[in-house]
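User: Hi! I have a protein structure encoded as tokens and I'd like to know what sequence might fold into it. I'm fairly new to this, so please keep things simple.
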């Protein structure tokens, strides 16, 4: 799958991923109203609203982008109906030819990590049959439990030719409370980056590993160090746009050929119609506003990295 991701980035000339992280406050009133008329002001109604919202954005943008990244917590808050909307979103995006990165941030003891990996990336056996659960192409993984928590994901990735992105240096302001702590005279994020490189060495695609890394756009100097420590890891970069990351901050995350990283934008794309820059589109044309925001983001990043 890492080979397909790189291929799609080349095809679309767009090293970007759209974060499908819906909140009800993002969903235009006409979509909410229609969902509530059908299902009432219930969890089912909320799930229907966010599914239809997602569908509109995907329909408007799928030809421009290589991948999407739905954040599962935004769906879990609506219980089982929300998880059903998550699954519908995953399946619909894949039907449109998009790579799906499930932002699930899982990581636990070995047997639990195996269950997470099987449920999101692999196949579960039921009697004489096998089924795919959520069936994303990549997922995000928290490495805090060490190799015990990550290896089960790597094993499933090797079997299924899928991938993971391991949290290394995240974009949130308090990330340094742990990630920047000095261990053996080095910051912890560097040690995690070295482990990512080691985990990925036995799970290689054509040029990059199935094991990638999450490194926030808000820390470009650290990104430069980590790019060198993880030469074969594709880097998923959150923090562009709404969180303060700028296109010029992204240069160190890419290799000299302009590949090696994919940049996420969530609110900056899916809530574009709420921004002053795109306000002229209005609520009814929210998806077209998202499309224009994708075009602008693509141009901004490609100009910065010289593509």
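Assistant: Happy to help. Inverse folding works backwards from shape to sequence: for each of the 307 positions I chose a residue that suits the local structure. Here it is:
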């Amino acid at each position: 799958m890492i080979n397909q991701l790189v291929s799609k980035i080349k095809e679309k000339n767009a090293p970007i991923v759209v974060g499908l992280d819906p909140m009800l406050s993002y969903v235009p009133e006409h979509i909410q109203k229609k969902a509530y008329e059908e299902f009432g002001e219930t969890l089912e109604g909320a799930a229907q609203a966010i599914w239809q919202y997602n569908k509109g954005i995907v329909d408007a943008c799928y030809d421009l982008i290589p991948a999407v990244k739905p954040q599962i917590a935004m769906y879990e808050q609506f219980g089982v109906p929300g998880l059903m909307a998550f699954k519908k979103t995953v399946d619909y995006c894949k039907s449109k030819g998009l790579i799906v990165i499930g932002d699930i941030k899982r990581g636990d003891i070995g047997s639990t990590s195996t269950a997470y990996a099987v449920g999101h990336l692999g196949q579960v056996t039921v009697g004489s049959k096998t089924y795919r659960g959520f069936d994303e192409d990549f997922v995000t993984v928290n490495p805090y439990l060490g190799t015990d928590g990550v290896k089960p994901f790597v094993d499933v990735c090797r079997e299924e030719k899928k991938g993971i992105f391991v949290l290394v240096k995240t974009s949130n302001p308090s990330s340094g409370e742990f990630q920047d702590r000095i261990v053996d005279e080095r910051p912890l994020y560097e040690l995690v980056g070295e482990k990512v490189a080691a985990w990925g060495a036995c799970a290689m695609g054509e040029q990059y590993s199935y094991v990638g890394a999450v490194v926030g756009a808000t820390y470009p100097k650290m990104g430069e160090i980590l790019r060198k420590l993880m030469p074969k890891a594709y880097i998923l970069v959150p923090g562009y746009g709404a969180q303060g990351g700028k296109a010029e901050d992204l240069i160190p995350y890419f290799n000299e050929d302009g590949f090696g990283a994919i940049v996420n934008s969530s609110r900056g794309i899916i809530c574009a119609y709420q921004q002053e820059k795109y306000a002229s589109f209005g609520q009814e044309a929210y998806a077209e506003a998202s499309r224009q925001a994708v075009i602008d983001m693509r141009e901004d990043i490609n100009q910065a990295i010289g593509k």
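A useful reference point when you look it over: The chain has twelve helices and twelve strands. Feel free to ask if any position seems puzzling.
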